[in-house]
Amino acid sequence: MKKNIQMPKLSEQMETGVLAAWNKEAGDVVKKGEVLFEIETEKVVSEVESMESGVLEAVFFEAGDEIKVDEIIAVIKCD
């Protein structure tokens, strides 16, 4: 099964966030609870943990990209 990873909404006012960094690359094994990427907003940089275990199959954005809330940024092929 595949699971889409979306840009999370970290605050009530958040409409977009900047992908600050990936902690994993496409093809890497990901475990639930591991930090997958970091998001930068106007106020803070936040780590986002994976909600699934599996393989990071596809990444659709690079560090520095501004992304709308709920947009699909990656896909994990779950165990």
Can you lay out the helices and strands and say which pair or pack?
Layout: E1 2-6, E2 16-22, E3 29-30, E4 35-40, E5 45-49, E6 54-59, E7 66-68, E8 72-78
Antiparallel strand pairs: 1-8, 2-4, 2-7, 3-6, 4-5, 6-8
How does this structure look, described?
With 79 residues, the chain is mostly beta strands. It has no helices and eight strands.
Comma- or semicolon-separated keywords:
OB fold (Dihydrolipoamide Acetyltransferase, E2P); four-stranded antiparallel β-sheet; 8 strands; 79 residues; elongated; mainly beta
Rg (CA only)? 12 Å
The main pleated sheet reads as: 4 strands, antiparallel
Which term fits the overall shape? elongated
Mean pLDDT rating: 95
What name goes with the CATH superfamily?
Answer: RNA polymerase II/Efflux pump adaptor protein, barrel-sandwich hybrid domain
Quote the CATH topology.
OB fold (Dihydrolipoamide Acetyltransferase, E2P)
- SSE arrangement, N to C: EEEEEEEE
Q: How is the largest sheet built, in terms of strand order?
A: 1-8-6-3
| Low-pLDDT segments | none
